[in-house]
Write a structure and sequence with these properties.
Elements (H helix, E strand, L loop, with lengths): L1 E4 L6 H10 L5 E3 L2 H5 L3 E4 L5 H10 L3 H9 L4 E4 L1 H5 L3 E2 L13 E5 L10 E6 L17 E6 L1 E5 L5 E6 L3 E8 L2 E4 L7 H16 L6
Length: about 210
């Protein structure tokens, strides 16, 4: 069973619907016992870094999420969920993120005539192999909506990257932690394959051969 963390962030329903289409029966919850009892956990979200951290704190979910990471439960962050996994964001100076992974969240530069927020389809490159991208071809397109982007401290955990005015670390993987800046649930067949791969990790059916 996959738990989707409910902290009043947007985009939860579309993630739930995508998992249902894959044959899963996810639960949307902020109950720590249900989250820690799940086989896999997803932290979706759109919105402000600072507001999101405040809501996670108010619902007592920060410690729960840390325990998810410590217990090696497969954990996927999507969009804002990716950003929250890191230490800080230029969007909310002085606000500490979850700190599960080392890196910074920076504002996309306003230059070159590119619109910010970045809204649209971009192709992916794969600097390192990642379990989320099995069966996904290099240069496949996925859907982004964001004004801030990840610059990971450890290049080895970057499994997908794209360019939009700067190099964007679009997906990372380290141990049980996975994250995507883009929205797999809105990325057509490519996105469904990415979610299918995560489900395979959760269910223990991922073929490492």
């Amino acid at each position: 069973m996959i738990a989707i963390i409910d902290y009043d962030a947007g985009n939860i329903k579309s993630v739930e619907n995508a998992l249902v289409r894959l044959g899963e029966e996810p639960i949307v919850t902020r109950n720590p016992r249900e989250i820690l009892g799940a086989d896999g956990v997803i932290l979706p979200g759109v919105g402000s870094f600072g507001d999101a951290m405040e809501r996670l704190e108010s619902y007592g979910l920060v410690e729960t999420i840390v325990q998810v990471a410590e217990r090696r439960i497969p954990f996927l962050g999507i969009c804002l969920g990716l950003q929250l996994m890191f230490e800080s964001s230029e969007e909310s100076p002085g606000v500490r993120g979850l700190g599960l992974l080392p890196g910074r969240i920076l504002r996309i530069p306003d230059e070159g005539g590119l619109k910010v927020p970045h809204m649209g389809w971009n192709s992916l490159k794969f600097p390192n192999s990642g379990r989320l991208f099995r069966g996904v071809h290099q240069d496949s397109y996925v859907y982004f909506v964001h004004s801030y982007y990840l610059r990971a401290e450890e290049e080895s955990m970057v499994t997908a990257a794209t360019e939009y005015g700067t190099l964007i670390h679009a997906s990372v993987e380290k141990d049980n932690i996975f994250a995507c800046q883009f929205h797999p649930e809105k990325s057509s067949g490519v996105g469904m394959q990415i979610l299918r791969n995560f489900v395979s990790v959760v269910n223990g059916t991922y073929d490492v051969s």
